[in-house]
Each structure stands twice: as structure tokens, then as C-alpha cells.
Specification:
Blueprint lengths: L1 H23 L3 E3 L7 E2 L3 E6 L9 E7 L5 E2 L1 E7 L2 E6 L8 E11 L5 E12 L10 E4 L12 E5 L5 H7 L1 E3 L4 E7 L2 E6 L8 E6 L15 E6 L9 E7 L8 E2 L4 E2 L4 E6 L8 H4 E4 L4 E6 L2 E6 L7 E6 L15 E7 L6 E8 L4 E5 L7 E7 L5 E10 L3 E2 L2 H6 L5 E5 L5 E10 L4 E9 L6 E8 L4 E2 L9 E10 L2
Parallel strand pairs: 2-9, 19-25, 28-36
Antiparallel strand pairs: 1-3, 3-7, 4-5, 4-8, 6-7, 8-9, 10-11, 11-14, 12-15, 13-14, 15-16, 17-18, 17-20, 20-23, 21-24, 22-23, 24-25, 26-27, 26-29, 29-33, 30-35, 31-34, 32-33, 34-36
Length: 479
């Protein structure tokens, strides 16, 4: 009986010893990971609680990132209780990694142990360090000007290049960066903000400080542009002989000489946004345009056809405030000498030897003149017409000695104006006519109308741009 109890006790002790060794197993730890699971190097030292048979042990060690991608590593036994791993891959700061040990291990006495252990770590993690925060000036911006500058302040020295590459502006705009220091940057648009729009500036979490640590959180800053500006309109149109000229010739007669430049002056400074689409020429021809402050310069390209043109400056033209032009402006002109024009008319009183010169003739005006007549109630006048270019004298006019394109109408019965002769100086573009007026009553006023119609042509077959009516009130005197 006593022997049986001794036998049972020995068996129980054997079982207890066996269960204890299996239950205790092999403990694993990593000696160079901190309590906050921070790994500062790419080397990991696994320490085992028992000495292991390096050759017999058969367990796997895998390292993965937070997306499940496995990282390559090499391993080497430093001793029977220490296995060194080296990660052969690029690691990302602040990202969580997983190391898993799984398989069988044998100690030096060839006892086997099941290994299954998982570790988590951050590589050079800054999770417990202070992250960079961002603030903005002005702190709150409800109505910004189109020139508004936004200042961003960083609590830590920041990576300038990362900020400029990662910053997001919505709606899109090209930005300028003025860095006062690694902590402060001023942001402004290259060509002003659009007026009456909401803008949002975003600094994403991908931005890092000068040590490569990400900012604490995404930063957003919004503002609305609202500014009143002077009305954007066309003020004047003039002609420049060339770009260096300071003399502006008021644009009146719709005619440009070769090389002339149309100069448009606007109320506000211009931007070149949409400039090509804002200026349209009909019929189409090549031209050059440029801007300087509030001026727009327009010039037909050399060799452009001689035509009547219409230049449209539409409301797509923008000023520096982002405003559109108040309306569409249309300017008609011809280049070169497409049309024959009357420069001036000279009425010469032969007996009194005096001239009456008419250059800018207003058809609604009645011009008053005095003409001297002789004792026989006869007056003679020379009518000299100066054209803009050589003109073609109709052959039938030469044959009949009559002028079909010019008439003089006295508005009284019995009063006659007879053409005595005519000649023209083709090189000087001048037509000379002599008229004799009979039977006018002394000191009496008479209405005359000189009409030049559009039937006359230049030597280059260019018609008269516009007919001319000169209305006269003539008083005949003897002194």
C-alpha cells in the first residue's frame, strides 16, 4: 500500500513537471522597442527566455505594414537566446507596423515549443511628440478684398517645399509665397482673387515639418471676396503714329494711315486674361494688340488688305479687379486709302480776292459769306476742292465740259450760277472750277447749296466715302 502511494506520487510529480514546462513555454521580447512601441532603427533584436537549437527550430518571422504588405528582412543568430533582424525596406515615419513570430522552436534538449507572438511598433514615431499646428491671419475673414494677403503661422519649423507642393486652393488660383521664416508665410494670388467668390485654402496632413514629422491635422481656411470697384468702361479712342509717340490724335474720320496705332483708354487698369477673345476684327485679318496699365494698343499687321474694318471689344475684357467691361464697343475704320475723301473746300471771291475755307463740313449748318459783284450785277467765284488722293475724272465730263458729280443750286428763280471752266491738278488732288453768278440783287441774301455726290472715283477705282452738302447764305455787295 505504501509502495503504491509512492509510485502514484512519483507519477504525479512527473506529470506536474511536464505540464509546467509546456505551460511555461518560451517567452519572447524585443529589447530595442520602447514601452510606447517605438522603434528607432531598422534592426530588431528578438530575445528568447530559453536557449534554442538554431538548426532544429522551425518558425517564421514576418513584418508587414498597415496595409498588409510584407517587408523583406534578413536574420542572424547572435546567440542561442538572441536573433537579430534587419529590415530591408523603406519605412515611413508614424506608420504602424506588425511583426509576427509563428512556428515551432526546440531547446537544446530537443523539447519543442509552440511560438505564436505578435508585436506592433512605430518606426521613429512622433505620436507622443508635439505636432506642428497652423493658424491664420486674419483669424476670421468675411469680406476680403481682391488683393487680400493671407498669413499662415506654423508652431514648428515647417518644410517650405512641402507646403508649396501640397497646398490646395479652391476654386483654383495661382499663388505667390512670401516666406518671412520657416514659421511664417504670406500667400497672395498672382493676379488678384476673383470678386464675389468663396475661396478655401487647405493644408493637408501630408505636409511635414523640417524634421519630417507630419502636421497635427488638416488645416482649412475660407474667405469670401467682396469689394466695390470703379465702373470698367472705355473712356476715349485716339491714334498714335507709332508706339514711341506721346502725341494722341483724336479719332474722328475713321481712317488709319499705314503704321497707325489705335489707342483705347479705359477707366481701370487692364489684365491680359481673355485679351485675345475680347478683341475681334471683322473681316478677319492679322493684328497686334498689347496693354499697358489702362491702355490697349491695336495695330493692323503689315500687308493687311485695304478694307473697311469693324473692331469689336466685347465684355470678356477684364480689368485688374476681375470685372468685365460694361458693354461691347464697336469701332469702324478703314486702313490706307480705301475711300476717296474731301479734305476741304475753298470758295474764292475773285473780285474781292478773299477766301472762305471749309474743312469739317456740317451739313446741318448754314455758312454765311459775302461776295463782291460788279456794276453789271455779276460775281465770279473759284471753287477749289481738295481730295484725299488722285481721282479719276469721268471721260464724259471731259467731253461735255460739264461736271456730273457736282451741282450748285441757287434757291431763287432767275438766279444763275454758270460754270465757266474747270481743271484739276492730279498730283495735288485738287479740282478747280470757276462759276459766274448773274442777276443777284445787291445786299440781298441768297441760299446756295453745293452738292458733291458719290459718283466720283479715285484713280484706284475707290469711291467717295460720303457725299458732301455745303449750305451757304451768300450776300452780294459792291464794297
Amino acid at each position: 500500500m505504501i509502495l503504491n502511494k509512492i509510485f502514484l506520487f512519483c507519477c504525479l510529480c512527473t506529470l506536474i513537471n511536464c505540464d509546467f514546462s509546456q505551460r511555461k513555454g518560451v517567452q519572447i521580447r524585443i529589447d530595442n522597442i520602447s514601452d510606447e512601441n517605438i522603434l528607432n532603427t531598422k534592426e530588431i533584436n528578438l530575445l528568447f527566455s530559453r536557449e534554442l537549437n538554431q538548426i532544429k527550430s522551425n518558425f517564421q518571422i514576418t513584418i508587414t505594414d498597415n496595409q498588409g504588405n510584407q517587408l523583406n528582412s534578413s536574420q542572424e543568430w547572435a546567440s542561442n537566446q538572441e536573433l537579430s533582424l534587419e529590415i530591408i525596406a523603406e519605412l515611413t515615419r508614424s506608420q504602424l507596423y506588425q511583426l509576427e513570430v509563428n512556428g515551432l522552436a526546440y531547446d537544446l534538449e530537443m523539447r519543442d515549443y509552440r511560438l505564436q507572438k505578435t508585436f506592433y511598433f512605430y518606426w521613429e514615431s512622433d505620436r507622443y511628440e508635439e505636432r506642428a499646428t497652423i493658424s491664420a491671419l486674419p483669424q476670421e475673414l468675411f469680406a476680403a478684398s481682391v488683393d487680400q494677403v493671407i498669413q499662415l503661422n506654423f508652431s514648428k519649423s515647417i518644410d517650405k517645399e512641402a507646403v508649396e507642393q501640397e497646398i490646395i486652393i479652391s476654386p483654383r488660383a495661382k499663388l505667390m509665397f512670401d516666406w518671412e521664416s520657416d514659421h511664417t508665410v504670406r500667400i497672395a494670388p498672382q493676379q488678384r482673387w476673383e470678386n464675389h467668390l468663396f475661396y478655401t485654402i487647405t493644408i493637408p496632413e501630408a505636409v511635414v515639418d523640417s524634421q519630417g514629422l507630419r502636421i497635427s491635422e488638416k488645416f482649412e481656411y475660407s474667405f469670401y471676396t467682396d469689394q466695390d470697384f470703379p465702373e470698367f468702361k472705355l473712356i476715349s479712342t485716339s491714334i498714335l503714329v507709332d508706339y514711341q509717340s506721346d502725341t494722341r490724335i483724336p479719332y474722328q474720320n475713321q481712317e488709319l494711315s499705314s503704321g497707325d496705332i489705335l489707342l483705347f483708354e479705359f477707366s481701370n487698369f487692364l489684365t491680359e486674361d481673355n485679351l485675345q477673345r475680347a478683341v475681334e476684327l471683322m473681316p478677319r485679318s492679322n493684328f497686334d494688340i498689347s496693354t499697358e496699365e489702362n491702355l490697349l494698343f491695336f495695330k493692323l499687321s503689315d500687308g493687311s488688305p485695304i478694307k473697311n474694318y469693324q473692331l469689336n471689344i466685347n465684355s470678356q475684357l477684364k480689368d485688374i479687379f476681375g470685372q468685365l467691361l460694361d458693354k461691347e464697343y464697336r469701332i469702324e475704320f478703314c486702313n490706307g486709302e480705301e475711300f476717296l475723301r474731301i479734305n476741304r473746300i475753298n470758295l474764292h471771291d475773285i473780285f474781292a480776292n478773299r477766301d472762305f475755307i471749309f474743312e469739317e463740313i456740317d451739313e446741318s449748318t448754314i455758312y454765311e459769306v459775302e461776295i463782291l459783284q460788279d456794276l453789271e450785277d455779276i460775281a465770279e467765284v473759284d471753287l477749289q476742292i481738295d481730295f484725299s488722293q488722285p481721282f479719276f475724272f469721268p471721260e464724259n465730263n471731259l467731253a461735255t465740259q460739264r461736271i456730273s458729280f457736282l451741282k450748285i443750286f441757287p434757291h431763287y428763280l432767275g438766279l444763275r450760277a454758270d460754270l465757266l471752266y474747270f481743271n484739276w491738278n492730279q498730283s495735288a488732288n485738287i479740282l478747280n472750277l470757276r462759276y459766274q453768278i448773274k442777276d443777284a440783287i445787291v445786299d440781298q441774301e441768297y441760299f446756295f447749296q453745293i452738292v458733291i455726290n458719290e459718283k466720283i472715283e479715285s484713280s484706284a477705282k475707290q469711291t467717295l466715302a460720303k457725299g458732301c452738302e455745303l449750305n451757304l447764305k451768300i450776300k452780294f455787295t459792291r464794297s
